[in-house]
Inverse folding.
């Protein structure tokens, strides 16, 4: 059987080269195992395999080339006399082991979070991020943050503190502007894009770092501006609705007063003509004339009461005119602000009682005084679906209550109930 020392130069060189390649591969695997912080078992296996393969390479190389090392002459002569086949088989088995180790490492990388995967994920982020020490020296930064820094300052990202100070002091390139300041900055660049930059301190392995995070919020910022403008328009519309409601109430009262005055004027004119005719010619019935004067007196008194009427009286009269009876349990508040709110609620409940519930009685109960809690119900049919305080008169009523500092809500089952707390 051919010994290792009897191999040709070509085949001996192939064996030694394969062993050297295995040494390099095992060394790479050992370094990656340590870097990725694998378990101690895998690190010890790769480390032991590296030492074994390196020793094998040194012995084979020195044995074949007759370059003995002190203390290894006996070992070299022994290797030369060993048959070549076992050495080749051992080398092949070690190669298989290394290939298996490489495949294991590839699968492990796919199924576990590694340093490389974290770095790739950070680099692929749409947001920009930089972590730096207290002196501002970056220890981790992704390309988007590097690009943003160079775009707004004209300088590469060598110091994160310089970048932050430049934004805080608005010391930026022309067209770049910080539109909000504080721990969170809003940065606008000439293209119209808006970035939210936030800095915070984080602790990593007992090391204190400053993290600066940049996120594009262009669409969100524009939406917030539109929402703000919409709220302002809505508030203006709400104020106009309040003024309109006040105007409607005032006009209704004035119309009632005017109608009463016209009625008193007409009746009084007829009574004067009847009295004059009776005094001049004796025509007419004296008892009827006296009855008409008494009715006129009553109308005049009613006219005086009508001129003094308030929101409650108007709502009671309105309910009576449309065939709804209001029954109150407790004492309604008389201060102007709460009276307007409750009168508006009465108006809405009268309308809903007729239109939706097909009822003819509205019940108002004062449940407690602190806070003042008033419940509105009716004797009509319960709602077919859940009632919401959105849109229409109930929504306007809710806004009035909230502007006062109270709360309004509705219950749909078992009966409709409007609850107001003031």
């Amino acid at each position: 059987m051919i010994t290792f020392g009897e191999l040709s130069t070509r085949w001996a060189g192939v064996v030694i080269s394969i062993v050297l390649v295995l040494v390099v591969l095992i060394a790479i695997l050992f370094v990656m195992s340590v870097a990725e912080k694998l378990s101690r078992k895998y690190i010890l296996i790769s480390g032991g395999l590296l030492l074994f393969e390196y020793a094998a390479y040194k012995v084979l190389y020195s044995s074949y080339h007759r370059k003995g090392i002190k203390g290894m002459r006996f070992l070299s002569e022994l290797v030369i006399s060993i048959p070549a086949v076992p050495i080749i088989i051992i080398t092949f088995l070690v190669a298989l082991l290394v290939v298996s180790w490489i495949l294991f490492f590839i699968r492990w990388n796919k199924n576990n979070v590694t340093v490389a995967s974290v770095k790739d994920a950070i680099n692929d982020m749409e947001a920009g991020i930089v972590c730096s020490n207290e002196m501002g020296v970056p220890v981790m930064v992704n390309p988007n943050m590097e690009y943003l820094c160079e775009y707004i300052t004209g300088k590469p990202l060598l110091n994160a503190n310089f970048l932050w100070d430049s934004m805080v002091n608005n010391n930026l390139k022309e067209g770049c502007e910080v539109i909000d300041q504080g721990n969170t900055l809003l940065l606008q660049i000439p293209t119209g894009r808006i970035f939210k930059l936030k800095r915070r301190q984080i602790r990593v392995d007992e090391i204190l770092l400053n993290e600066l995070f940049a996120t594009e919020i262009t669409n969100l910022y524009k939406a917030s501006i539109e929402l703000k403008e919409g709220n302002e328009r809505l508030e203006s519309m709400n104020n106009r609705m309040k003024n309109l409601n006040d105007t409607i109430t005032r006009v209704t009262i004035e119309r009632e007063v005017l109608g009463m005055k016209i009625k008193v004027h007409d009746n009084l004119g007829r009574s004067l003509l009847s009295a004059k005719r009776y005094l001049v010619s004796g025509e007419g019935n004296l008892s009827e004339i006296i009855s008409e004067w008494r009715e006129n007196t009553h109308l005049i008194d009613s006219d005086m009461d009508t001129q003094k009427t308030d929101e409650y009286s108007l709502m009671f009269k309105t309910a009576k005119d449309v065939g709804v009876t209001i029954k109150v349990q407790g004492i309604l508040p008389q201060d102007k602000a709460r009276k307007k709110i409750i009168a508006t609620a009465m108006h809405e409940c009268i309308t809903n009682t007729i239109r939706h519930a097909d009822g003819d009685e509205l019940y108002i109960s004062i449940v407690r005084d602190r806070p003042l809690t008033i419940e509105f119900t009716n004797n009509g049919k319960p709602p077919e679906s859940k009632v919401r305080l959105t849109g229409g008169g109930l929504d306007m009523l809710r806004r009035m209550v909230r502007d006062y500092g109270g709360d309004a809500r509705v219950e749909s089952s078992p009966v409709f109930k409007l609850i107001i707390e003031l």
Notes: Residues 278 and 284 are 6 Å apart (CA to CA). Residues 304-309 have pLDDT under 50 and may be disordered.
